[in-house]
Amino acid sequence: MMVNLSIKARKFFPSLALAAGLGIAEAVVLSVGSGFLMNIMGIPMDSSMRGPAEQFLTWRAFGAPPVVIALAAQGTFRGFKDTKTPLYAIGKYYSMPYVSSSLKGSLCCL
Questions:
Q1: Where are the domains of the chain?
Q2: Measured in whole angstroms, how far is the alpha carbon of residue 90 from the centre of its chain?
Q3: Is the separation of the CB atoms in 68 and 22 below 8 Å?
Q4: Cα separation of 62 and 34, whole Å?
Q5: 41 vs 50, 54, 90, CA distance in Å?
Q6: Cα 3 from Cα 32, distance rounded (Å)
C-alpha cells in the first residue's frame, strides 16, 4: 500500500521541528550550565582541567541539535517501515571523510 508523500511530509516535519527545539534547548543547557555540571561531577574550581572541560562542554553543545534531529528522522523513517533510507544516509555520512581525504590525496599529486 502506497502512502501519499504529502501525508508522510505532514507527519515528518512536526517531529523534526520538535527535535530541533529539543536539540537547541539541550545545547543551551549544556553551554550555559557547563560550570554547574562540573560542580555536580566534583571537579574543584582550582583544578587545572576545569577550564578546558568547561570549554569542551560549551563547544560540544553545538553538536546536540544535529544529533537529536538525526535520531528523530531515523525514528520517523522506521515508523514508515522504511529502514533503508536512514541506513543509506548514515552510510553516506560516514563515508564522506574517506572520500574527501582520498580526493585530497589524489589531487595533491597532480
A1: 7-108
A2: 12
A3: yes
A4: 13
A5: 11, 12, 33
A6: 43
The secondary structure of 35-101 as a DSSP string is HHHHHHHT--TT-TTHHHHHHHHHHHGGGHHHHHHHHHHHHHHHHTT--HHHHHHHHHHHHHHHHHH
- Tell whether the model's pLDDT for residue 3 goes beyond 60: no
Rounded Cα gap, residues 108 and 4, in angstroms: 48
Q: How many of the other CB atoms lie within 10 Å of CB of 61?
A: 20
Question: Among residues 90, 86, 37, 89, which one has the least CA distance to residue 60?
Answer: 37
Share of residues in the chain with pLDDT > 90 (%): 14
- Identify whether the C-beta of residue 86 lies closer than 8 Å to the C-beta of residue 77: yes
The answer, yes or no, to whether residue 62 has pLDDT greater than 80, is yes
C-alpha 104, offset from chain centre: 26
Q: What is the C-alpha separation between 4 and 17, in angstroms, rounded? A: 21
Question: Could you identify the residue written with the cell 576545569?
Answer: 50
